[in-house]
Automatic annotation (TrEMBL):
Quaternary structure (record): Heterododecamer (2C3:3R2) of six catalytic PyrB chains organized as two trimers (C3), and six regulatory PyrI chains organized as three dimers (R2).
Name of this protein: Aspartate carbamoyltransferase
Originating species: Sphaerisporangium aureirubrum
Transcription regulation found in the keyword field: no
Family: Belongs to the aspartate/ornithine carbamoyltransferase superfamily. ATCase family.
Binding site for carbamoyl phosphate: R54, T55, R104, H132, Q135, G260, P261
Keywords: Pyrimidine biosynthesis, Transferase
HAMAP family (UniProt xref): Asp_carb_tr
Cross-referenced Gene3D superfamilies: Aspartate/ornithine carbamoyltransferase (3.40.50.1370)
SUPFAM superfamilies reported in the protein's UniProt record: Aspartate/ornithine carbamoyltransferase
EC number: 2.1.3.2
Annotated ranges, domain Aspartate/ornithine carbamoyltransferase carbamoyl-P binding: 2-144
Length: 310
């Protein structure tokens, strides 16, 4: 495959190939080998139209650990502020020799458009409220490392599903990998139509909690939300927040996940985020490994855009 745009179109074999490749790469870094020569001569462009800490930095770290050259582009401070379009921006970057473009954009579908304009591989690093495939892959990788095979595992995803590209990507990928996913959210924070979402929906967090192998909390995305959508913060935390009391009612061995950034004290209590059951820091570490696997699989067999492995 040339691009990674969504988990909805990722087959089970493709998904397992990424996870197994990431596992091999993790073993290499466990042997204190920090850098591989695999992508020497390739150029990866990070094209970020929305803010990011984890995704942008981990793609940069992943590309550098594979010896690729990295160009970081942030829309803030660029000619986008003078009105330059996504297409012209992309073609400008391509003219500088991008073999892969990692794009985060506020518009759902922007990476798909980009893939029709550039010659290199396109990786979706989050598009609007649509998908964030590498987040779902790193989440699945983290679950597999903690719990083993995901077949039959029960994963509960809680919170602002309406605005969450993380939720959508996870629902599709986890279903493909054989897990049973339940979404828990207030009715106002669920999409109006959930046709094609292979999961169950519940409004009762406490009923689902004791049957969950994984509880994944979502950030309340205030920046994408009209204030009238949202109950009070206190009411939200009471019904849909993960506090120490709820943590105590999870099954033995169950884990707590959050993609970050967190609203501590809103969807997740600080003590829960920092507890031994939390994989939040591991998720960040695993993000670098999984993104190395994605870049490796997309680029290692391809010819460099210009120059390259001579
Ligand atoms: N989880 C995630 O996508 O975080 P960033 O927005 O910091 O990249």
């Amino acid at each position: 495959k040339r691009h990674l745009l969504s988990t909805a179109d990722l087959s089970r074999d493709d998904a397992l190939l990424v996870l197994d490749t990431a596992e091999q790469l993790a073993r290499v870094s466990d042997r204190s080998i920090k850098k591989l020569p695999t992508l020497r001569g390739r150029t990866v462009v990070n094209l970020f139209f929305e803010d990011s800490t984890r995704t942008r930095i981990s793609f940069e770290a992943a590309a550098k650990r594979l010896s690729a050259d990295v160009i970081n582009f942030s829309a803030k401070g660029s000619s986008v502020s003078k009105g330059e379009s996504l297409k012209d921006t992309a073609l400008t970057l391509q003219a500088m020799g991008a073999d892969a473009v990692v794009i985060r954009h506020g518009a759902s579908g922007a990476p798909h458009r980009l893939a029709t304009w550039v010659d290199g591989s396109v990786v979706n690093a989050g598009d609007g409220t649509h998908e964030h495939p590498t987040q779902a892959l790193l989440d699945a990788f983290t679950m597999r490392r903690r719990l083993g095979d995901l077949d039959g595992r029960r994963v509960t995803i809680v919170g602002d599903v309406l605005h969450s590209r993380v939720a959508r990507s996870n629902v599709h990928l986890l279903h493909t990998l054989g897990a049973q996913v339940t979404l828990v959210a207030p009715p106002t924070l669920l999409p109006v139509s959930m046709d094609g979402w292979p999961c169950e929906v519940s409004y009762d967090f406490d009923a689902v909690l004791p049957k969950s192998d994984v509880v994944m909390m979502l950030r309340v995305q205030h920046e994408r939300m009209n204030a009238s959508f949202f109950p009070s913060a206190r009411e939200y935390s009471r019904r849909y927040g993960l506090d120490t009391d709820r943590l105590g009612r999870m099954p033995d061995g169950a884990i707590v996940m959050h993609p970050g950034p967190m609203n501590r004290g809103m969807e997740i209590a600080a003590d829960v985020a920092d507890s031994v059951r939390s994989t939040i820091v591991e998720q960040v570490t695993n993000g670098v490994t999984v993104r190395m696997a994605v870049l490796y699989l997309l680029l290692s067999g391809s010819e460099p855009a210009i120059g390259g492995d001579k």
